[in-house]
Design brief:
heterodimer, A: alpha/beta, Rossmann fold, 2 domains, six-stranded parallel sheet, two-stranded antiparallel ribbon, 14 helices, globular, B: alpha/beta, 12 helices, 14 strands, binds thiamine diphosphate, binds magnesium ion
Chain lengths: ~350, ~325
């Protein structure tokens, strides 16, 4: 059983011209800028976490091409179901940075303003896969010309929900694109101990549809393949699974110590395959980029990130929201419980000021 | 027996270590439990000592972990399966409710299932969604499954050893808030704390205060604020099967009861405790029983978790109210 492998832009920034997508300067710059923005967003989050200003955080360092390339292949009307490491997709899809920070600082209120078709993150691994299949299925039933894209990791392919989702998608030929970010680890477990399958993409063949493995650090390959899969989905061709072969450059999350289970040399090897570096070389070769533009962009992004953090940190979560969104209408017992809490809070305030 | 000051993580680690050493059929399995030593380091050092047949890094699949552990258990092994966080234990309920808990019953004793499923639980640690929930109720409701929640390092070790040796499946919830909160003397070598037996932490005549897991510490803090009252604090330790006697004896003495739990109020274990008091000691009550609990809402993310969780002030208020009734 074997699946195709695709790469267009190699680690040194050389492009395979026969496969090169014809993208204008503006689009390529947008890819590049969003990848750098994602990295700087992540980097800032890690710093905030270290200072106790953020919850446990999983950075997407090294996976920016997978996120950004696929996100820009989607249309705003396509469904997007993330796991928890899809910061780059969220940013590319226009979710304000401040909202992303508010969520990872510990408030569901971030999701109050999510733009449509962008589902909230799914922390329980793999569970979102079924929802994406259902949303795609609904589009098919309602004869809407949209697709649904779901993201998940290599580890997620071991959960039952993954297999059930893939099977439903195959049986009902739903317009779903399965994007597996194979970053080689599920916390400490290396990919080869997760499954005896040679590739993750080949699992799609067992469910009766196409699976393809691509260089996930190559934004051109990710973009092209996702675009094709989405067009196929929207025109009734059914699902596709895309395995993006990439690498988690950082720890699993801020609570993780990767020195326990992987060698520094391995990380060094992958550094050479950095997705941002190779895109920059490509842009420079095309005469689209230089150091002064880089400097100006970094300054601009730094300001953008700082502004978002400020906004996020000044956000005050609303206590009533804890009770407000449980049901459409608040049942009596929740009204009573809310009163109980508010009574407690005002009594404490009274005690403090008295 | 030598004594060492250990926190709860170390005490549980020691229990696993000693039981594995003593009984070659005991094994540990779960996500990241081997090379990584567990995300909370509870299984640290076990892999190098016992090897990868007995300390197993599994694929990422909770139903898979518990389902295969059931197969091992009915074949004479004693698996201790770890579920990384309580919020991912829901996927195990099918295997536990449909199989582990009733294989003895269905097979009329031909098979039994000496399985332990360990999972950290509970809030107050500023964690992500699904990483701070108190979910014991789901498991207490499964006949044939035991549910244990320690509140101290000493009890954690003794209760875990009892759970491993128990011939029936045990859900062992560890209050992650208390994992490293404090140390106490924990003997090296074998001792057990029996399942199904609650513990009086303090003796008192004025009021019975009932809790388990992380809430025991909250109750102890609350008692500092009501020093004029003699409160009898009971740590249930095992929620299923419940030690009725320690509760009923106490209620008959004090006539006043406050129950504290992190779980949402509706069908939280407090409800069952009140029912048993009604059945066995109603006429001893001098005040309505009061519950201090989580609210009937999903466990909020950290910005609001302090509003959700019972705390010492809320518990002290409840104690005063019931005492003054
Ligand atoms: C159902 C479930 N089990 C366990 C966890 C704890 N956990 C969080 S991320 C993770 C590993 C996920 O690996 P992978 O799918 O490869 O995604 P990655 O983290 O590498 O992006 C685990 C075990 C979880 N979130 N959900
Ligand atoms: Mg992974």
């Amino acid at each position: 059983m074997s699946v195709d492998w695709l790469s267009i832009l190699d680690a040194e920034g050389n492009v395979d011209e026969s496969l090169e997508p014809k993208l204008d300067t503006e689009t390529l710059e947008k890819f590049y800028r969003t990848m750098v923005l994602t990295r700087m967003y992540d980097d800032k989050a890690l710093k905030l976490q270290r200072q106790g200003r953020m919850l446990t955080f999983g950075s997407s360092l090294g996976q920016e091409a997978t996120a950004v390339g696929s996100a820009f292949a989607m249309k705003p009307d396509d469904w997007f179901f993330p796991a928890f490491r899809e910061h780059g997709v969220q940013i590319a899809r226009g979710i304000p940075l401040s909202l992303l920070y508010i969520y990872w600082m510990g408030s569901e209120d971030a999701n109050l303003k999510l733009p449509p078709k962008n589902f909230p993150v799914a922390i329980p691994v793999s569970t979102q896969i079924l929802h994406a299949v259902g949303a795609a299925w609904a589009a098919k039933i309602k004869k809407q010309n949209i697709a649904s894209v779901v993201y998940f990791g290599d580890g997620a392919t071991s959960e039952g929900d993954f297999h059930e989702g893939m099977n439903f998608a195959g049986v009902f030929k739903t317009p779903t694109v399965f994007i597996c970010q194979n970053n080689q680890y599920a916390i400490s477990l290396p990919r080869e101990k997760q499954t005896a399958s040679k590739t993750l993409a080949q699992k799609a063949l067992a469910y009766g549809f196409e699976g393809i493995q691509i260089d996930g650090n190559d934004v051109l390959a990710v973009y092209s393949v996702t675009l094709t899969a989405l067009e196929k989905a929207r025109s009734g061709g059914g699902p596709t699974m895309i395995e993006c072969f990439t690498y988690r450059m950082g720890p699993h999350t801020t609570s993780d110590d990767p020195t326990k289970y992987r060698k520094a040399a391995e990380v060094e090897e992958w550094k050479k395959k950095d997705p941002i570096k190779r895109l920059r070389i490509y842009l420079e070769k095309k005469g689209m980029w230089d150091q002064s533009r880089e400097d100006a962009m970094i300054k601009e992004i730094t300001d953008e990130v700082e502004k978002a953090v400020k906004e996020a940190e000044s956000y005050k979560p609303v206590v009533e929201n804890m009770f407000k969104y449980v049901y459409a209408d608040k049942p009596l017992h929740l009204k009573e419980q809310m009163d109980e809490l508010q009574g407690f809070i005002s009594k404490r305030r009274g005690n403090e000021s008295g | 027996m030598s004594l060492a000051k250990l926190n709860m993580v170390q005490a549980i680690n020691l229990a696993l270590f000693e039981e594995m050493e003593k009984d070659p059929t005991v094994l540990v399995m779960g996500e990241d439990v081997g090379v990584d030593g567990g995300v909370f380091r509870v299984t640290e050092g076990l892999l190098s000592k016992f090897g990868s047949d007995r300390v197993i890094d599994t694929p990422l699949a909770e139903s898979g972990i518990v389902g295969t552990a059931i197969g091992m258990a009915v074949s004479g092994l004693k698996p201790v399966a770890e579920i990384q966080f309580e919020g991912f234990s829901y996927m195990t309920i099918d295997q536990l409710a449909a199989h582990a808990s009733r294989i003895r019953y269905r097979s009329r004793g031909t098979y039994h299932c000496p399985l332990v499923v360990r999972a950290p639980y509970g809030g107050g640690v500023k964690a992500l969604e699904h990483h701070s929930e108190a979910v014991a109720t789901f498991y207490i409701h499964i006949p044939g499954l035991k549910v244990v929640i320690p509140s101290t390092p000493y009890d954690a070790k003794g209760l875990l050893i009892s759970s491993i040796r128990d011939p029936d499946p045990v859900m062992f919830f560890e209050p992650k808030k208390l994992y490293r909160a404090f140390k106490e003397e924990v003997p090296e070598g074998e001792y057990t704390v029996p399942l199904g037996v609650g513990k009086k932490i303090t003796e008192g005549e004025d009021l019975t205060l009932i809790a388990w897991g992380a809430m025991v510490r909250v109750c102890q803090e609350a008692m500092e604020q009501v020093k004029d009252l003699n409160v009898e604090l009971i740590d249930l330790r095992t929620l299923s099967p419940l030690d009725d006697k320690v509760i009923i004896d106490s209620v008959k003495k004090t006539g006043r009861v406050v129950i504290v739990h992190e779980e949402p109020r509706t069908l939280g274990f407090g409800a069952e405790i009140i029912a048993r008091i009604n059945e066995k000691a109603l006429l001893s009550l001098e005040a309505p029983v009061k519950r201090v609990t989580g609210f009937d809402v999903p466990m909020p993310l950290p910005k609001l978790e302090d509003y959700y969780l019972p705390n010492a002030a809320k518990v002290a208020d409840a104690i005063k109210e019931v005492a003054a009734f």
